[in-house]
Amino acid sequence: MWRGLDNPFHRVSAFLCGREHPPEQRDAGSSRDRVMNRCRWLSLPLVVPAAFIVGFMFGGAASQALGMWEEPVVGFCAALAVVLAGHHAVPTHRFAVSVVLLLAGGVTAYRLIGRSWYPEGYEKAYEPTYLPLLITFLGGLLGVAYSFLRTRMKTTSFAS
What we know:
Layout: H1 8-17, H2 31-66, H3 70-89, H4 94-112, E1 116-117, E2 128-129, H5 131-155
Antiparallel strand pairs: 1-2
């Protein structure tokens, strides 16, 4: 088993998150903390689909209320919800989890949305477009940017 910074994942995580040492080398904490951390990791497969459903429903309601094209709004909200929920669900490696969820969500979005067509009421009605897919990716990227900034703010000292 790898220990400390010998683990390549910890090296990448330390570089991306601005940490010198992986969380395991700092303070191990009590056994209750370790159990809670495991529970948080195990909750991830439940939290991500729930966030997708909530983001999907919120995006649908928002697009209906605003009278906008549904596919881009729903995709943006669902991608943002999934990445943010994944970031807040796990106890450590939040940025790495956000990036993995963005990549997995990107593949899923491509398979679900792929090429779309403009709706009937638009000037380019029935023409193919990748606009909903791009806006979905933008929602996921916004979530990853939030995760990156939150991770950087927690690890950077602003004292002069």
